[in-house]
């Protein structure tokens, strides 16, 4: 949108001017505006997902965002203010998606398969990045940048329709599930799938829980590095190594391809270690998350000093790829410590983890004013320091055991807003309800 275009003046002179002559600060504002809306709906999205079903809220979020994407080009041509406004609204709808997925997994995922199922789903984010970066480069080259928004908007609407028709809130509501599969999920899940209206979240206990804040810090740290690279990697490649946008699309996608692959390996490895009882669930989460963060700290610094584009891409590929192990730690930890509250816990952690998307682009834009390698190194140093802090906090406070404040509420109980005031509660007894006879 900001690359120079060939323009012929009235006197026949050919000049090159950008279609949108934005400063780095304006670019940062446009990129980060999405997250202004995204951060607002994390907790409400998790709460609504628990109440009315994660599958429905997820479809609404993706469908509305896809529809708004189609309006982005005309609004951008109208004014920068309207472009920023529509991106904020897109963020409002997209903000419900991650909490909704945890609401779905809390009902569908057997306990011993959480890591590989959740990481398989999360890998879609990175596969999407891998696919979209080169496609965006080609669309921008052959159709102009508006084609990017039209193509992905339409694809999003088609996908939403399929999701709405196929995905059910819980296995109990799926007419196509077999009795054996339903019983397996229920027995392994360890708790009946409660009606959303009966779930009450013990907010005081949640907000004072060390394991919860360990997840929050890990999520924040991983997203800082991810959002920094996602928004500025093509610009960094152009400034430091003089790559054009059409070339950076493929190179920029390589680190996220590594992440998508590593996520699959890490999820299966985590569940295998748990099944073989080689390590406890807590130690598996700590090993994967902290080991990844410490390695990412090293390779982000190495990328900042890489003398060639190949060396830089290798370092960034390793750094981003190792994030797959981190996601196999903290991203399924919500389901470990509090399955009925996993959607709101994801909403809480993703609320804080969205702050990097708001802070990082303007901060990088204010640092990289001369577009030099030295200034870009500062951006990478900040990411490395945050990874290191995340490793320390998660290593100290992480737990993967059900927390004492997690209760399953009887349907005839009376409540107020704090779980401590529930008049009729019972702890987890790990006895599933076998409803296969009803199917």
From TrEMBL:
Coiled-coil-forming residues are none
UniProt record, GO biological process: carboxylic acid transport; monoatomic anion transport
Q: Does the keyword Membrane apply?
A: yes
Principal cellular location given in the protein's record: membrane
**Location in or out of the cell:** Basolateral cell membrane; Cytoplasmic vesicle, Secretory vesicle membrane; Cytoplasmic vesicle, Secretory vesicle, Synaptic vesicle membrane; Lysosome membrane
Under catalytic activity, the entry for this protein gives: N-acetylneuraminate(in) + H(+)(in) = N-acetylneuraminate(out) + H(+)(out); 2 nitrate(out) + H(+)(out) = 2 nitrate(in) + H(+)(in); L-aspartate(out) = L-aspartate(in); L-glutamate(out) = L-glutamate(in)
Domain Major facilitator superfamily (MFS) profile: residue ranges: 1-402
The name on file for this protein is Sialin
Organism from which the protein derives = Euphydryas editha (Edith's checkerspot)
